[in-house]
Amino acid sequence: MDALAALSLASTLMHFADYGSQLLSQAPQSYRSAHGTLTDTIDVEVLILDLLSLKQSMKRRAPPRCAAAASDAHNAENGKALQALYERCINAAQDMLAQLAKLKSQRGPAIQNAPQRSALPDKWRGLLGADSLEAMDRRQQPAGMHFRNWSSFNRRLRAVCDRLEMEALEDSLWAIRRDVQFRMLVSFRGALCRLASQRSQTSHELRKLTTRILDSFYEGDKSFTSQMLLQSQQLLRLDESAENDDDDDAFSTPMSDIIQSIGSFQAPEDIILNKSTAADTRLENEVFSFIIDTCVLDSLTFATMVDRRESVEKAHARTFDWIYKDAGAAEVPWSNYLTWLRHGDGICWINGKVGCGKSTLMRYLYENKTTQHELETWASGRPCDLYSFFFWNSGDEDQKSQLGLLKSLLFDLLQRHRSLIPQVMPDVWKTWSVRVKAAMEGKLPYNSSVLPPEPSSLSLLSLKKIFKRVLESLGKSTKVCFFIDGLDEYGAEHLDIVKLVNQCALLPNIKLCLSSRPWRVFEESFAGFPTLRLQDLTHGDLCHYVRDSLYSQPLMQQMSSPQAEDVSKLIQETVTKSQGVFLWVKLVVRLLVHGLAAYNDVADLQRRVQRLPTNIDELFAHMLAEKDYQRASQIMQIFQAARKRSPEKITLLQLAFADDQDEHLAEEAPMQKITLEEKASRCQEMNARLQGICAGLLESHDVKYSSMAPDGKVMFLHRTVSDWIAKPDVWEELVSQTAATRFSPSLALLKSYIMLLKGLDVTPERPFDMGLVVHAVQYAKDAETELNAGFPEIFDQLDSAAAYQWRLGDCHAVYGSEIMSDTSSDTEKAQSEGADSLSGSPSHLTTYLQSYRESMIENQDGIFGTLNLGTIRSARKSSAANMTFTENALAASYIAHTEARFGGRTKEQPQEATPTRGTVATTYDHWTWGLEIPGLIPMHKATTFYDAARLAGMKHYVASKDSSANVLDQDVGQHMLIRAVLPPTPMPDTGLEPELVERLLAGGADPNFAYQGPTPWQAALAAAAAHFAAVDGRDEDDLSPQFIKGCENWIAVLDVFLRHDADPYAVGKVQNVQDRPQVSVCTVLESYVPGFLEDRGLALMGLLEEKREEVDRKRGVRQKKSPGFDIERKTQGSSVEWPMSWIPIRNGAT
Q1: CA gap 650, 648 in Å, rounded
Q2: How far is CA 973 from CA 17, 336, 970, 1003, in A?
Q3: Exposed e or buried b for every residue in 449-462, given b needs 16+ CB within 10 A?
């Protein structure tokens, strides 16, 4: 049986077994309809219709009785087992219908307002088929019976049915359920291999589906079954999208047509776990193997594994068709590619000059079904696999190295042939087996530090040995053809890669199609092999492209009507002048199309083409010179600086922030989550600037969403652009355009990272990526070097943004979390699990961005986060961090007020998140304690932001701080303020010095934030109330001078706090007063301030009233004008005047 057909059948059988086992369960259950309505009432008619639809769904996916032999013994065995399970399920369904039909002759207790029985809908007749309805036994027709609850239904059913029959049926369903679980997992693995062989570009999606199933295994039988069903449907959807055919047979009918119309049962507890059978061991062993496979495959992946191939432009319509034709009729002598596909061995080398379309042809060959079809002749009845790798010199290290080549090919090979993993990687398999076994036996998280260590990273030598073993083993039963593009873009000695491919070509049943520039090293190495020189063969293709591109424009159609012959000449002149370089043609056609409105006739277009330089490098310079050269120079410098520093390169959103012309944007922007609308707008504008100002030499690309998605990577149009920019004279000319402006690309990138930090969506469960700070500090250091000057106001914003996000993350951060990372769409899963999302997006791009955001939030720890068993650096927080407010009326009122006004999380405290790989955490230290920059700042060496700047070599910044005598940063001041209002020793009678509080608050300390316990402002309220309460009605003459001074200081301290934006609605708890009452500032001023300070208390009441009005006014402005949402997604975003007060108060006072 076909692997995907087996999975479809197993999923349907699982639906039936799950439904049936719960239907006969004696545990109290409720019924949830297909529309989501939950009811205790049991309608027998609905149950019968559910069973009928499930029965019909199983029949539609029935395995053929005379099925062809399976391609291997494993699939054959699984097919036979599913055939037997299918027959058992059909018999069980018939028995269940018969048992329910016995209720017909019994008069059950009526219920009031019972819904009337409706006629069988036409949709059911269409889905079930007239033959099925006619064949139904009359006793099985719905009887319209209703029961008040599950217990009454179950008692009546067991009263009218034979006890032994019922018990046998129930036991049979449990056994079926367990067997189907096992077979479904086996089928899922088979379908993974099948899809991987058909659509290797879906590897990221396949790994995600696998991970979710594994994560649910320990959550219980019901969770595991639900995930199996959900992810199987996702896998089948991938296959439907891959095939994209209109086949109308039974298998192609979507399962959701029937299954989504079926209700489900909801029980208070999972009783399935109590039904243990021998199949449990089989299932656990299958999961065990599945986990190990997943871990091994994950160790071979890297983030950019398929980026290059997917970024290569697809072939234009009607181009490259000639390669599948006989070469006898060709005007230019070339090797017959079709003959090589059908009968050749070894290597076929495609070469050509820069920009002639080699990579596009390689992608065309690899993805074209004709290639697979023609290779079947070579395979002679054996299976034939195709694999690809596209080198990219402009990419990261894995994209231009043997290490990346071997890891990528091994992943694809072993993903399709998982049974080879224990044979070709025995040591790695054994190490993972020990680790996974320990995790399963101890039911430990996969990232637990007590587990045995994971295998060390594989060396290049080890990967070569494994690769050879895989090819030797696979070659015994399968033919393999590799498509490897861009050998000239290999980042090391080219003879090394030549040696590797030649060794592979010598193995039996292995052949390779290679492409590169016609360099001498390749000409000598591949002499004697079939070869194609591409630029000599694409004249017709280029003519097709130019003609189609020009005639797609209405203006060109009007212009060409009386001048058709001149248009033909224009096309021929353009193609001839290109000398076979497709890139030249593409750029020239783009220039012609964009300027059509400025030309009067075809002759103008011809003169335009004639004036253009033939040399591709000269064409680049010509195109930029026609634009805003200085602005283009700035963007190019920013892009190059990002490529030099960041392996993952720059994204469209990062470049948009860096290129923003508002010099004060990073300084004045509030701490506010970036809205989807703003991302869409910025990305659209930046993409337009790339096309306009940069003449399209830079472009954004992201195949998962759109070219304007925020994580769309910005890259050179072609490698030739990168080579041109790298020439010393070209780069010198570009930099000279901004020499007089003191422009710094590194400073622009620093501002971009500050904007990204300020706009993150951070929670304790999703801490921010410290890697953003690492890059920002590195760019800041570079900017000081470029400008030979400091920029303390901007750099201080990095401290503010990092401190803010550090606090929102409950003093946690991670390394390696991808803020703009792999974002394969999980929208369907998010919707199926009730994920909330913004709606009403004004554009298609915003829909893309919403999917991106949901995917980013769900996968913040990266694919296989639960299986990543790396080193953890964390400091567990004390239980004090989980303290909450006392439940009384005043506290509840304050909590509700804080929720509404500040979007705080005071009502329900989040659980401490499980630290992920590379997590740093601390309750008491400054955020820089967790900052590590290789070569600059060691981990745990910085204790303040000033300290981090000094260690990083920020000489100008340090000098400016030294000269100002103000080296306190956000968190140091915060700690000092908290220590001042909550001293470790009793507060002196003189109270707190107002000057100290003034200095700390003016330096940036936040009165409304606390790491744990009360905020400084709450503590000050409580301490002031306690001090004033000690007066206890005594006259001023009866008080000591020190105590009177303390009263005066405390009234002054309250004044200072309010003037520095302390929350005028805050409540503090007085610790040394009876019953520990909670007091607001109003209560303190009205009820606690002694009589001799009455005038100052009244003045402070006036200030309090002003502050409350100001807060209310700002809140109204935010609700009307702010386009964003605050961190908690409950109120409108904050204004720049209140950056720190928007930190939620997480912990209550003690």
Answers
A1: 7
A2: 63, 76, 6, 7
A3: eebeebbeebeeee
In the three-class reduction of DSSP (H, G, I as helix; E, B as strand; rest coil), residue 1141 is classed as coil
The Cα–Cα gap between 304 and 398 comes to 8
Strand partners, 389: 484
* Alpha-helical runs (H) found in 129-274: 130-135, 150-160, 163-198, 203-215, 221-243, 256-259
pLDDT reading at 769 higher than 80:
yes
**Residue 39: enclosing H or E segment and its boundaries?**
strand 38-39
Distance CA 633, CA 1003 (A): 39
| Structure tokens, 162 | 């034979």
Cα 667 from chain centroid (whole Å): 29
- How many other CB atoms sit within 10 Å of the CB of residue 89? 26
Phi–psi pair at 825, nearest 5 degrees? -65, 125
No. of helices (H) and no. of strands (E), the chain: 47, 17
Q: What length does the chain have?
A: 1150
What is the three-state SS of 732-759? HHHHHCCHHHCCCHHHHHHHHHHHHHHC
* Cα gap 409→301, rounded to integer Å: 10
Rounded alpha-carbon distances, angstroms, from residue 331 to 189, 537, 735: 50, 9, 47
Angle CA(465)–CA(432)–CA(454) in degrees, nearest 5?
Answer: 90
Is residue 1077's pLDDT more than 50?
yes
What CA–CA distance (Å, rounded) separates 601 from 606?
A: 9
The CA distance from 928 to 796, in Å, is 13
CA-to-CA separations, 459 to 402, 449, 492, 494, 733, in angstroms, rounded: 11, 24, 16, 20, 42
CA distances in angstroms from 652 to 639, 658, 682, 683, 711, listed in the order given = 10, 10, 9, 6, 6
All residues at 6 or more sequence positions from 975 whose CB lies less than 8 Å from its CB, including other chains = 924, 926
- C-alpha distances in Å from residue 584, one per residue of 606, 911, 1010: 16, 58, 61
pLDDT in tens, 306-356: 888 888 999 999 899 999 987 655 554 567 899 999 999 999 999 999 999
Structure-token match 């993150």, residue found: 760
Structure tokens at 569: 């000449």
Q: H-helix or E-strand containing 338?
A: helix 337-343
3-state DSSP assignment of residue 42: strand
Cα separation, 335 vs 537, in Å, equals 12
CA distances to 23, 48, 169, 654 from 104, in Å: 17, 12, 20, 68
The per-residue pLDDT for 238 is 56
Task: Find out whether 632 and 693 touch, Cβ atoms under 8 Å.
Answer: yes
Distance CA 466, CA 455 (A): 15
- Pull the structure tokens for residue 715: 């890259």
Model confidence pLDDT, tens digit, residues 335-344: 789 999 999 9
| DSSP 8-class letter at 860 | T
* Residues facing 347 on adjacent strands: 512
Q: Is 40 helix (H, G, I), strand (E, B) or coil?
A: coil
Give rounded-to-5 percent helix, strand, coil for the chain.
60, 5, 35
Vertex 779 angle, CA 774 and 781, to 5°? 100
For the chain, what is the radius of gyration of the CA atoms?
35
Q: Which of 733, 732, 681 is nearest to 708 (CA)?
A: 681
pLDDT at 827: 35
Q: Residue 318's CB: how many other CB atoms inside 10 A?
A: 11
**Strand pairing class (698-701; 713-716):** antiparallel
CA 925 to each of CA 449, 803, 958, 1012, 1064: distance values in angstroms, whole numbers, following the listed order: 24, 11, 21, 13, 28
Name the DSSP class of 90: H
**Measured on CA atoms in the order 1127, 1130, 1132, 1137, is the torsion positive or negative?**
negative
Q: What's the Cα-to-Cα distance from 180 to each of 13, 555, 1096, rounded to whole Å? A: 7, 63, 79
